[in-house]
Amino acid sequence: MGSHPHTPPLPAPTTPAGQEGLAALLARPDRAVIALDFDGTLADIVPDPEQARAHPGAVEALAALAPKVASIAVITGRPAGVAVRHGGFAGVAGLDHLVVLGHYGAERWDAVSGTVRAPAPHPGVAAVRAELPGVLDRFDSWHGTWIEEKGQALAVHTRRAADPQAAFEALRGPLGELAARHGLIVEPGRLVLELRPSGMDKGVALTQYVHETGAESVLYAGDDLGDLAAYAAVEKLRTEGPDGTPGLLVCSGAEVPELAERADLSLPGPGAVVEFLQSLARQLAANSG
């Protein structure tokens, strides 16, 4: 791999599968899909998710990279429109090849049209919305928990509680029972419990999108338990068909050991992810120059 004089070398994946994935992406970038989680990967984790914004340089890096690859997909548990707004993705030159798959793929925003396609909400979400405050009131010793409204789902955050981890553990059972009563599941994350319909996960969304685009390689970057399904999807794609679809799994941060242990490349957090995307864009520009 030749290098641009101002480009730091791309960090090397530590696994043979990851090295193969990166090599395939560099060899045929126009057949590659770059898929990225939002919170904790493109944006730093903050106490109030409404204040989360894409890391400085992220949009610029994506705009430099997008014209060189088949597509960039941001796959998030957030509503697609919220991720677009917090990411600053709308109306950016160079980002025509960007899609945001929100609510784990249940919603979709395309940069080309600038519109969101979304299904009707699951009826269980409205029932849980009505009952959730009463459930949390029974745990008033864990004050500081709060509910994030996500349209197709609801999330209970414990990050602001006096003892965030204890609050998280205490609520898992009661919220699991509440979700099950209304046909929903609970997805645990970093000090957050999300109540949402089953069948929506990042693995399903990623697999469908890779097949839709006909991608011949895929990179996925994430940071939390919800990204495990996408990791599993990439691992499966590698084995499908006569040759499989080479893939590179990137982990942002080290807070979730289950993810870090399966990654081909671990980066310290969103700042390093953005630097990696910038280096990748420069490498592809140098290769085509």
The major sheet is characterized as: 8 strands, mixed
Describe the strand arrangement of the main beta sheet, using strand numbers.
5-4-3-2-1-10-11-12
Q: What is the terminal-to-terminal distance?
A: 13 Å
Give the proportion of residues in helices: 25-40%
**What's the total count of β strands?**
12
Number of contiguous helices = 9
Q: What is the mean pLDDT? A: 92
Shape: globular
Class from helix and strand fractions: alpha/beta
Beta fraction: 15-25%
Please give a structural write-up.
This protein is α/β, with parallel strands linked by helices and 289 residues long. 37% of the residues lie in helices and 19% in strands. It has helices at 16-27, 58-65, 80-87, 123-137, 164-181, 202-213, 228-237, 257-260, 270-288; strands spanning 32-36, 71-75, 98-102, 107-110, 115-117, 146-149, 154-157, 184-188, 192-197, 217-222, 247-252, 265-267. The strands form 2 sheets. Strands 5-4-3-2-1-10-11-12 form an 8-stranded mixed β-sheet, with helices on both faces. A 4-stranded antiparallel β-sheet has the order 6-7-9-8, with helices on one face. The longest helix is centred in the last third of the chain and has 19 residues, at 270-288. Mean pLDDT is 92; it is low at 1-5.
